[in-house]
């Protein structure tokens, strides 16, 4: 029974307490990415054909930013969640490629 209790402790995610600096940098980074997307559309800084891919790229950067900073996916103990998220992204990407190929070709 004692060995079982020890195994349960090993599986718990290890949380690092780093202070507010990392969170402030991440928050400011998220604000900058949002401002870039707004400026790109509002002031037509980039060509019209490149606007949507640029905003989608910024969205992916911000999503990864939030996953690893706010949801602590970079810490030990989150391996299954990380694998599940990236496997799901792969399946979605594969489905999009298949349906685009199916419709356009």
Question: Could you walk me through the main structural features you see in this protein, from its secondary elements to its overall organization?
Answer:
The protein has 2 domains: 20-72; 77-104. It is mainly alpha-helical and 105 residues long. The protein is built from 4 helices and no strands. 0% of the residues are buried. The radius of gyration is 20 Å and the shape is flat. The chain has helices at 2-11, 21-42, 48-69, 79-104. The protein starts with a helix and ends with a helix. Belongs to the cytochrome c oxidase bacterial subunit 4 family. It is a multi-pass membrane protein. Pfam families: COX4_pro.
The largest sheet is: none
Number of domains: 2
Helix/strand-derived class?
mainly alpha
Order of SSEs, N→C? HHHH
Fraction in helix: over 70%
Low-confidence stretches: none
Features:
105 residues, mainly alpha, 2 domains, 4 helices, 76% helix, 0% strand, flat, transmembrane, Cytochrome_c_oxidase_bac_sub4, proton transmembrane transporter activity, membrane
């Amino acid at each position: 029974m004692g060995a079982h209790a020890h195994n349960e402790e090993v599986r718990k995610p290890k949380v690092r307490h780093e202070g507010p600096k990392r969170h402030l940098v991440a928050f400011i980074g998220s604000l900058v990415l949002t401002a870039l997307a707004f400026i790109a559309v509002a002031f037509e800084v980039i060509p019209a054909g490149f606007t949507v891919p640029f905003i989608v790229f910024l969205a992916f950067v911000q999503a990864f930013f939030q996953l690893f900073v706010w949801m602590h996916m970079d810490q030990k103990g989150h391996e299954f969640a990380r694998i599940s998220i990236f496997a799901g992204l792969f399946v979605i990407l594969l489905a999009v490629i298949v349906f685009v190929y199916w419709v356009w070709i």
